[in-house]
Amino acid sequence: MITLPSTPPDQPLPAYQLYGEPAPAQGSEPWHLETISARSRLHDWEIRPHRHEGFQQFLHLRSGQAQAWLDGRTEPLTGPCVVSVPPLAAHGFRFEPGVQGHVLTVQAAHLLPLLQRLGAADGTLLARLGQPAHLPLRRTPALARTLQALVDELAQEYTGHAPWRAQTLDALWLRWVLGLARALPDTTPAGAAAGPPRRAHDHLVRYRALVASRFHLQPRVSDLAAELGLTATQLNRVCRATAGCSALDLLHARLLLEAQRELAYTRQSIKQIALALGFADPAYFSRFFQRLCGQSPQAWREARRPASTPVATAPATGEPAGFSPRGAGGS
């Protein structure tokens, strides 16, 4: 089992391009693929909790066992399985030495236009990709073989130099994402309308992007709506039709998620977390958290972070930063 460090860091959850690599590389490729062992063995088979800004990541465990931490919950992993990790989701892994598998990473800003050009970037698909998920494959051998074959093709193409390599990688990535999304659980809210109009869906995607970049500033919904060319009333209609809740609910949900990540994976004080999330008064933050979760921040932290949950630290690494055309990547 993994135990908490005796002197936990007083730092927020680290965000990397790849594990241990905080800075992007210029001219880097939008995809990355490596074996699980390529990076995890450098860190004693432990990838401590962290997150990625702007990258969709998939861990394909072909064989062996591991433990995953996904946004505050612990998941035992047994190969074959896939773990899907959206941008900014807190995640970490502890692998048994010698596990077999790959880590596949793609820039979200590259993947989304590919899906949009196919008309595949609908609310259901984005909702499935937008939540951390663990997909066991032991009881679906046909799907396991299909996904393994795609990983093998991606690995061969990624390390090769054949003509139209980039176009082939894009095509393989689309097959991987669409095939996997079919098998992931549907997380579309029960109150959302079926088949929202394309314009409404596009507004929702843009609103979520604004929320993701501004939530810590606690902007007014009316200001965000104006950036989208909408009134607050129009934005609320869009959110209720496509997400089943109000625009303010989505903003508060993002604030709450960030608070839970910091509570679960760091030793920052309640006051530090409150200030980082734009709350001038820690007491107001505690009331906000209590109202949405039914528990105080401290009670939630104590209940959901047992002694076996690792605390985020920045690993010492001499690896070059960011993606490289054939460089090492990470979880």
TrEMBL record:
GO function term, MF aspect, one: sequence-specific DNA binding
Keyword 4Fe-4S in annotation: no
Family matches, as SMART domains: HTH_ARAC
Entry protein name: Helix-turn-helix domain-containing protein
CDD domains linked to this entry: cupin_HpaA-like_N (cd06999)
Stretches assigned to the HTH araC/xylS-type domain: 205-303
Keyword line: Activator, DNA-binding, Transcription, Transcription regulation
Taxonomic superkingdom: Bacteria
Biased composition (Low complexity): 306-317
Compositionally skewed regions (Pro residues) per UniProt: 1-12
